[in-house]
Every structure is written in C-alpha cells, then in structure tokens.
C-alpha cells in the first residue's frame, strides 16, 4: 500500500468526531473488507508507552488548595457552566464513566501537560494546571481551549503531550476562581494551547481520502474474529518518520471511528484498540439499512422480524413458567433474515467504553422499542429481558460469555471458541516430535525435563494442597520441615506446579496464554489459561493432584523461619514431590478448631455440609506449625502499621447443574422452563483472610517474596506488584485507624473512608518497589510465582527462574526490554480479568435479588421476611450531579447484602452529606447487563 494513500486517510475523520454512527455505517466498507493486505506490507512498531511519574508529594491535597478555590456549593452551581463540553449524552454513559476512572488511577499528570479529554464521543483539549485529592480520588484541573477550567478524573485523559507550557506558568494560572494575575497567566497559556490545536487542524485540513485502507491493513484475516492494533503500529503504517503530532493524529483517527476500532481498557498507557470483525460491521450496516427502508416505507425483513418477535413475546407474557429446567420448541421459526437481528441484539450487550459512540445503540433502541414498546429508555436491561422472552437466551444465561475477549469469534454456538483454539494447538503439539538439542517450533513441547539433573527429591514429605472443593487447577502445595538442632525454627516449602518444564516461551500455547493473561472463572464456565486436557494429563503431571505416590515436578520455594516470622534463609529449587494430600479449606478449619468461615444468608439457605477431615496426628501437627507461622507473619505486618479494609461481599452458590441438553443461546426456535436453585450468601473480607485461607495466603506471600529476592540476586528482570501507602489527613487520623484494627490487621471500611484521603491502587513495575499492603519494603519486591497454571505472569517468572537454576550463560528468556512489553500485556489482562470477575459476581447477585423482589411483587415470597424492605446503608462518596438530568445520585454500600447500590433522586438538601454516613434505604429496581449492572434503592421516608 502506498504511504501517500494511507497518510491521506488520516485527517478525513480527524474533523468528524461528532458524525452520526448511522451515517458512518452507510459507507460502503464491504469492498475494502474483501481485500487482503499483502504479506509483509505492515511495518512493526513498538506497542509500549510510558507516562511521566512524579512523587506523591507534588499532588496537592484538597485542604491545601489556594484560597481562591471554589467552595463545594460554588462547584455544584458552576458544574453546568464549566462542563458544557463534557455533558453526557445519557444516564447510561454517566453510570459507565463512574466505573472507568479506576483504569488510569495510577497515572499522574504534571502541570503544563497537554491533554485530550474524552467523555463519550466528545473530545476536549486542554492544559493540566493541577491535581487534587477529593472524595478519595484524584481530580485533574484543566484549562480548555474555551478558557474554562474544568475538573475531571484521570481516566478521562486519552492522550498527552508533556511540557506544552512550563510548570511555573501552569501554577500561575491557578485552578479556582481567577484573580487578575491568574487571568494574565491563562491568556499566555491559551495562546500556546490554541496554537497547538490550530496546528492540528491545519495538519488535518487537506486530507480527503476515506479511511478504509487502514482497516484493511489491521483487520483479522478471519472475517468473524476480533483482533487488536495500536496507535504506534498504525502510525508507522502511515508515516515513514512519524513525529509526535502524527501519533496524535492517528490516535484521533482511530478513536473517532468506533464502528471499526474500540479503545482498550487502560488506553492511556497501552494506546491499544480492538478491531471489530468485518462480519459485525456488515451486520450493523445491514440492520441499519433495514431500519432506513422501514422508515421510508419500503418493505424489508425488519417488518417480518418485528411481527414474529411480538407474537413470541405475547406468548411468553401469557404463560406462567413452572417445573424443572427444560427447553422446548415453539411454533415460530427464526430464519436467516431473523437471525441477523437476533445476532445484532446479542452483540449489542457486549462491553463498550463510554468515551466512544456505541454503534449498536441506535439500532438496538429501534428494535426494542418496536417489539416491547417500553415506557422507559432502552438499555442493556430491556435488551436482556427481550432476548429471554424471545427464547434466545435462558433466564440464567451468563452474558459475560459473549464478550469479545472471551469469545473473539462472536460464536454463539460454541463451535469456535478460545477453548477450541487451544485444543487444536494441543492436538498439534501431541503430534509434533521435538528433539533435544534442536530448535523447537511453536507446536513442540520440551522433549525432556530441562531441570532433571538439578531437581531436589523431597522424598515422602507431606505436601498439603489446600483449596476449595471445586478447584480444578491445583498449582500449589505446602510442606513443613522441622530442624532437629533448631526446634524453634522451621523450613516451609511452597511447591508450585512447573508447566515451564514442558511449555517453552515460544510455544503456541504460551503465546495464546500471553494474549489471555489469566484463567477466567465464570458462574457456569471456566476458561483455563492452559487446556484442561493438558493440565490433567497424567503423563505430564502439571496439576498437583493426588496420584498414589507418583512423582510430580514442581518449583519449590523454601523459607527458613524463626518463631517471630523472620526469614533466616531462603532458596528456590526444582523439586520432586510424591506425597500429596488434597484437602479443602473447610476441612482444615474444622480439624484445627477454627470453625467454618462465617457467612450469612439474607434470603434463606445454609452452607453446604462439610465432611469430617481425614487427617492423622502428624498432619495436624504440621498444619498447626503452618498456622502459627502464618499468625506471626500477620503480626509483623500489624507492627508495620499496615491496615486492611474489612468489607462485606456477596456470593451466589449454584445448587443446580444445568442439564447438558440445554442450549443457550439458541438461535433456533425454543423456550426455556424453570430456573436453577441458588443460595445467596454474604461474608466479610477479614473472615476470608483468616483460618486456613489466611494460612495458605501467608505461605504464598512468603514464596513470592523469595522469588523476588532470588531474581534480584541474579539480576534477572521480573514483573513485580507494588503499592504505595494510603494518604491520611494527619498522623493523628492515621493512628485512629491503626487503633481500630483487629488482630489480623483489619478495620471496618466504613470507619476508614471517613478518615482516609486516598488509597492508592496496586501497580506493576520491574523495580523492587514497596508493596505497602503486604508489608514488603522497597528493595525486596514482590513477584507473583505461585499460580503458573492460572496466571501468565507467574509462568514468565518460572521461565526466568529456570534460566538461573540451569546456570545458563545463554540468552535470558526475557530481557528487561522484553519484560517491559510483557508487563504492559499483564497490566491489561489483569485489569480485564478483575473487571470481569467483579462484574460476573455482581451480575448473579443482582439476578438473585431481582428474582426475589419479583416473587415478592407476585405474592410468591413471604413479605414478613423481606430483607429488601428496609436496609442499612452508608455513603461511599459525595453525591454527584448528573448534568443531563440535573439530578443527584450517590453510591451506598449495603452491609446486609454485601453489595453496592445507587440512590437516585438524592435530595439536594443532603448534597454535603459526608462519606460514611448511615442511611436507611429500600429496594427500587435492578438493571441486569454488562455495561450497567446496578441495584437501585431509594431513601426510606423519615
């Protein structure tokens, strides 16, 4: 492809940020989509971006702000005036945006930095004047091209250019009510800002060619599959010697085309986009075309589908579902034309960032309104309900199974999934015969154990593999070794599965694991990092299952501890174990007299029965030693003034196994009956981190610290987790919080948030920085190494440790530069996994609550035992004003339900209510979806 043709595509859309998505869809992209890029036509480019960091001391606190800073009342009144460009286009987008700022919470912005701010499809340019801490979050104060100073979150920033003006000039501008001196400085700053923006506009002015050529270069060869690209990659396609301005123009081009490119989470750091498959673009285009025909009075498949759907919904509404879980055929038949609209509705439920237009919104709204004729705005919840009524998905269907990262082919039949992709690779790997000493290909396993000559045989040492009964990927166990000459000291050995002895870094499964990052545990589906067939293959013994004395290869992390928890010595070895004792957390707790982990059941139900543990006296003696050593580790952290937040969380236990003949989603013509039995429970984080769970956790922390120490000693790069300490308003307040702690270092989060200014998020680094929450100091570092079957970063650590153990002088598996690239991928995948896990748990908790509330309304449930009628709540942050509705809303935590809810129509006379304030609320409604899954409550009348 000619560089001129690609380059001329850039600014065609740089000036079209507000164009209609429907108008964009009407562009004929099909011709471009059928062509293929020539092999080798795309130049490689670095994906990584770094952001300037600054000490926390340079972040101004709210209390230390200049005198001219507006008061809270003034900020409320000024909100509409100061943020016209940041107005949300709808309540849904505002709710999404509230959740997104955590992605960039660790990125700081120096005064004088040029920033592009995005809210939905609106982009605003400005200069950072200051950062403050308010309501437990960082707020960025930015001077815009219109001369307004606006207050926004860090995650609203999508592009930066450092040092557009000096820090001293930015400081003179001020960020509050301006003084004459501030105005003089702002005029000077605005000249430079507008000059840059004018340069951007001139850069874009002469470019006329449509931007479809870039899409052809970056799209997947499979028209059904999502793929990814980066700003750096596309910029290097467009420019032979790109300047910084060229990167910015490429960013704008990609960001302003949400039909083709979706910004990835953590975009400011990774500058990555997901590239929409051609099939999805064509579906959106075809649905849009049908809607336009209908509006023009031209017959189209749209009218036929709406009529069919209305009949099916009517039949659904007239029936009363009872009986066991089953699926039956219905008279209405969906044909290929109907499936176009059904697939469109299913795909409309996938996640979408609020900074870009969602190309599904308008079409989905048209379809749902035509079928259901709702009286409220169309959102995920209504679309979800419609698909259930149409018999497309079961009422219990997990929508997270549809998201592109877990279903990149968008295959609703489960015939082409990331599991089948891994299975195909595994089949090819079994057939491939790599030979020792030869260069191994992407399908070759290591032909023999590379660490066989240095493995330490732990003999008949009892190795306790302690996990939940349902756990499948058993990748760690613990043994204890007494020292006869030092009875007060013990060796603790953490034995970890060793997949690196089979899978080399360039294996196709390793590359797939890097893309995925981690295993995913959904409600009814586990998506493992490595194929389950491989993990449980007895030939390779990757999972630490009990195998009647058969040898298991492990990486063993050994720590010599004294009675005060001090690490006297440590080492990492390749090991062999044979005496594995698999036992559950609950069984260990019963055996040690801890009692079962505390839970309560607000909607009824009890915990599952736990059988008596089959442990002998020697087992119990070992476990008691481990528990005592865990207790002293906790005590050492408490001495370091570490505090953990004790908060209630919810969980849903499935008591019903869905019959294998139930197919959901079903693009045929069927309807579902029944609903699985579930038990809703609530627990506290302090209880989750005590007993046997706390004991295992402490041993894993010791192993991870040991891994970091060994890697440091050999100057081998590794990915480390780190976290700064919280920011307290004063030493006296900090001491108040420390005095609240329990013996295991926990304090009630409601009491903490009243006193805490900021709790920093955890980050990744190659440097051995401190991890305050774990009590790990600077210079030691914390490397995660104990879950290589579940986390890619852990097996990366193992590959580096293998290199050390072999005493190899050959090239490291990952150099420092390569590790930086891995770190960027790990950062993205860990955030994505955390978001999915949180969203998935919330989805089923709210599904249970919604069904309970619906049963109350229908008279099925006894209203005398209704926990939703009156609930204790406390405020999680200050009230927020929605500029598009002029209404106030506030998030509250519900301790009895272990969940967060949203209070809408919050009274204006309570706008200054402090964080942590107690309220009484009652149930209002639930929205189920992925973009917005929320419980809504209202204040009880006093």
Structural account:
The relative contact order is 0.10. The protein folds into five domains: 104 residues, no CATH class; 150 residues, no CATH class; 113 residues, no CATH class; 383 residues, no CATH class; 102 residues, Nucleic acid-binding proteins (OB fold (Dihydrolipoamide Acetyltransferase, E2P)), CATH 2.40.50.140. The strands form eleven sheets. Strands 1, 2, 3, 4, 5 and 6 form a six-stranded mixed beta sheet that branches. It contains 27 helices and 34 strands. Helix 13 crosses helix 15. The N terminus is likely disordered. It starts with a helix and ends with a strand. The protein is 35% helix and 19% strand. The chain has 942 residues and is of the alpha+beta class. InterPro entries: NA-bd_OB-fold, RNase_II/R, RNR_Ribonuclease. One of its GO terms (cellular component) is P-body. This is RNB domain-containing protein. One of its GO terms (biological process) is mRNA catabolic process. One of its GO terms (molecular function) is RNA binding.
Write the layout of secondary structure elements.
Blueprint: H1 3-7, H2 21-25, H3 30-34, E1 60-61, H4 72-82, H5 91-100, E2 114-119, E3 122-134, E4 137-144, E5 149-153, E6 157-161, H6 167-173, H7 180-205, H8 212-218, E7 227-230, H9 231-238, H10 244-255, E8 261-263, H11 267-270, E9 272-275, H12 278-295, H13 301-318, E10 326-329, H14 336-347, H15 361-372, H16 380-389, H17 418-431, E11 456-457, E12 462-467, E13 476-482, E14 490-497, H18 508-516, E15 520-521, E16 526-527, H19 532-535, E17 552-561, E18 567-577, E19 579-584, H20 585-591, H21 617-639, E20 644-646, E21 648-654, E22 670-673, E23 678-684, H22 685-688, H23 691-713, E24 720-722, E25 727-728, H24 731-739, E26 746-748, H25 749-753, E27 756-758, E28 763-765, H26 792-805, H27 816-858, E29 871-875, E30 880-882, E31 887-894, E32 899-903, E33 918-927, E34 934-939
Helix pairs in contact: 6-7, 9-10, 12-14, 13-15, 21-23
């Amino acid at each position: 492809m000619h560089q001129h043709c690609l380059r001329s595509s850039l600014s065609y859309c740089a000036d079209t940020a507000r164009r209609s998505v429907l108008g964009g869809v009407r562009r004929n992209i099909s011709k471009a989509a059928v062509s293929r890029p020539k092999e080798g036509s795309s130049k490689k480019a670095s994906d990584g971006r770094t952001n300037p960091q600054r000490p926390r001391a340079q972040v101004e606190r709210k209390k230390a702000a200049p005198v001219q800073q507006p008061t809270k009342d003034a900020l409320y009144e000024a909100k509409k005036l100061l943020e016209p460009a940041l107005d949300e286009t709808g309540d849904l987008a505002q709710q999404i945006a509230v959740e997104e700022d955590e992605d960039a919470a660790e990125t700081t912005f120096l005064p004088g930095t040029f920033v592009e701010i995005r809210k939905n499809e609106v982009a605003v340019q400005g200069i950072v004047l200051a950062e403050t801490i308010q309501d437990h979050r960082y707020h960025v104060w930015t001077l815009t091209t219109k001369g307004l100073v606006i207050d926004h979150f860090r995650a609203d920033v999508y592009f930066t250019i450092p040092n557009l003006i000096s820090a001293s000039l930015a400081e003179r501008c001020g960020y509050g009510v301006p003084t004459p001196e501030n105005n003089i400085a702002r005029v000077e700053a605005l000249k430079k800002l507008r000059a840059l923006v004018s340069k951007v506009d001139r850069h874009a002015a002469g470019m006329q060619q449509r931007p479809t050529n870039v899409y052809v270069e970056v799209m997947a060869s499979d028209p059904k599959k999502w793929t990814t690209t980066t700003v750096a990659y596309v910029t290097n396609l467009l420019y032979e010697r790109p300047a910084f301005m060229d990167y910015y123009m490429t960013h704008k081009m990609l960001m302003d085309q949400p039909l083709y490119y979706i910004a990835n989470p953590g975009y400011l750091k990774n500058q990555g986009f997901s590239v929409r498959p051609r099939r999805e673009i064509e579906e959106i285009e075809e649905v849009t075309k049908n809607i336009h025909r209908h509006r023009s009075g031209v017959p189209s498949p749209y009218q036929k589908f709406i009529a069919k759907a209305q009949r099916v919904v009517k039949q659904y509404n007239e029936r009363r579902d009872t009986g066991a879980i089953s699926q039956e055929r219905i008279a209405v038949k969906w044909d290929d034309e109907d499936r176009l609209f059904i697939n469109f509705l299913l795909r409309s439920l996938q996640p979408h960032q609020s900074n870009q237009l969602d190309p599904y919104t308008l079409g989905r709204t048209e379809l749902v309104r035509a079928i259901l004729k709702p009286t409220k705005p169309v959102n995920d919840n209504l679309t979800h309900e419609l698909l259930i009524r149409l018999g497309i998905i079961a009422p219990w269907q997990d929508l997270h199974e549809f998201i592109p990262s877990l279903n990149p082919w968008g295959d609703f039949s489960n015939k082409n999934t990331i599991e089948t992709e891994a299975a195909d690779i595994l089949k090819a790997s079994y057939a491939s015969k790599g030979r020792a000493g030869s260069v191994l290909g992407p399908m070759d396993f290591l032909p023999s154990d590379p660490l066989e000559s240095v493995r330490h045989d732990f003999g008949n040492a009892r190795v306790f593999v302690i996990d939940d009964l349902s756990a499948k990927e058993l990748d760690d166990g613990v043994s204890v070794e007494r020292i006869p000459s030092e009875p007060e000291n013990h060796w603790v050995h953490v034995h970890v599965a060793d997949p690196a002895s089979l899978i080399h870094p360039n294996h196709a499964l390793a590359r797939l694991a890097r893309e995925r990052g981690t295993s995913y545990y959904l409600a009814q589906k586990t998506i493992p990092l490595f194929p389950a067939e491989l993990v449980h293959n007895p030939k390779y013994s990757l999972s630490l299952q009990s195998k009647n004395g058969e040898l298991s290869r492990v990486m063993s992390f050994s720590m010599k501890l004294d009675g005060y928890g001090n690490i006297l010595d440590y080492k990492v070895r390749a090991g062999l174990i044979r005496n594995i004792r698999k036992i559950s957390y609950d069984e260990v707790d019963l055996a040690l007299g801890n009692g079962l982990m505390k839970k309560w059941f607000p909607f009824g139900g009890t915990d599952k029965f736990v059988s008596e543990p089959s442990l002998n006296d020697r087992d119990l003696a070992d476990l008691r030693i481990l528990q005592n050593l865990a207790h002293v580790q906790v005590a050492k952290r408490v001495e370091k003034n570490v505090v953990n937040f004790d908060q209630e969380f919810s969980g849903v236990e499935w008591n019903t196994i869905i019959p294998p003949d139930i197919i959901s989603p079903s693009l045929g013509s069927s309807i579902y009956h029944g609903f699985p039995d579930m038990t809703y429970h609530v627990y506290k984080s302090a209880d989750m981190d005590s007993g046997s769970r706390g004991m295992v956790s402490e041993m894993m922390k010791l192993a991870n610290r040991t891994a970091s120490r060994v890697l440091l000693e050999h100057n081998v790069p590794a990915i480390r987790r780190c976290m700064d300490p919280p920011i307290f308003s004063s030493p006296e307040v900090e001491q108040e919080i420390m005095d609240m702690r329990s013996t295991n270092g926990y304090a009630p989060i409601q009491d903490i948030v009243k006193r805490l200014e900021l709790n920093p998020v955890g980050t990744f680094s190659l440097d051995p920085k401190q991890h305050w929450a774990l009590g790990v100091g600077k210079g030691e570092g914390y490397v995660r190494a104990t879950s290589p079957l579940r986390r890619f970063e852990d097996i990366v650590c193992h590959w580096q440790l293998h290199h050390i153990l072999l005493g190899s002088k050959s090239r490291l598996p990952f150099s420092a530069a390569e590790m930086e690239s891995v770190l960027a991928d790990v950062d993205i995948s860990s955030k994505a996994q955390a978001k999915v896990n949180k969203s998935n748990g919330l989805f089923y908790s709210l599904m249970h609550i919604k069904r309970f509330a619906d049963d109350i309304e229908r008279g099925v449930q006894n209203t005398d035992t209704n926990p939703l009628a009156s609930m204790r709540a406390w405020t999680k942050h200050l009230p927020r004003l929605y500029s598009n509705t002029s209404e106030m809303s506030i998030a509250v935590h519900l301790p009895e339900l272990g969940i967060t809810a949203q209070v809408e129509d919050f009274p204006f006379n309570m706008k200054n209510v402090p964080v942590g304030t107690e309220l009484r609320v009652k149930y209002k409604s639930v929205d189920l979806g992925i973009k917005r899954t929320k419980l809504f409550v209202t204040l009880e009348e006093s």
